[in-house]
User: What shape does this take?
Amino acid sequence: MSWVLEKLNSGLVRVFLIVVALFWLVPTIGLLASSLRSPEDMSANGWWHVFAKPSQLTFDSYRRLLENGDITHSLWNTVLITVPATVLVVIIGALAGYAFAWMEFPGRDWWFLVVVSLLVVPVQVALIPIAELFGRIGLFGTIFGVILFHVGFGLPFAVFLLRNFFAEIPRELLEAARLDGAGELRLFTRVVMPLGGPAIASLGIFQFLWVWNDMLVALVFTKSGTQPITVALQTQVRQFGNNVDVLAPGAFISMVIPLAVFFAFQRQFVTGVMAGAVK
Assistant: This one.
């Protein structure tokens, strides 16, 4: 009897999770269906009518999107901002995390406390002062300035996460590598980095999603030629009547790319998040 109840409960839980997942995907499915319909069909009825009339599906909206220079340029700007901001945070955060975890230097714990305290600083507080600073040194409105801002605010969390993960590595393993003649750089690249893969992947996903979907920082620090896709789509909303065929495919592409990154590294992400749960 208990075996039957266990199977039944397991089946009910699985059905419940599937239903929740389907409801969670409804906005994505709706956006995809809207992006594959003509402006006339979208103004006539809801996106769900596409299931009754599959003939409405067309890729004309994506063709118009590729012909819209503002959208394609902003998408490229998003890549130019997101990739360096993610890579730099991962590299610098990993180096600093290793230093705080396993290297001895004066004031190590106090410096780490300073880094952790920066986690509580809201982004909104620093927007105007940093914008004024960037304006004085010629970085305001440039892609490099946006990258620098994201790196600066992404590093405290990166150092905190990776330092705590690296500190869980057995000391005996590192000492054995040092006895074999490994220096700090070789120890970091050959031992610590492979073992820290799950945490580094988790950090990379967090940083990528944050920078890719950011709109507040981009609104403040970018100009017309350096705007990412989020700002470009917001600009198109002001002309919704004329650009409805561009908004839907543009929003779907902007959403599907981070989703693809997340699912590509899902296993490493889950492993990194759960890494400290069983220690």
Notes: The chain has a mean pLDDT of 81. Residues 138 and 145 are 9 Å apart (CA to CA). The chain has 14 helices and no strands.
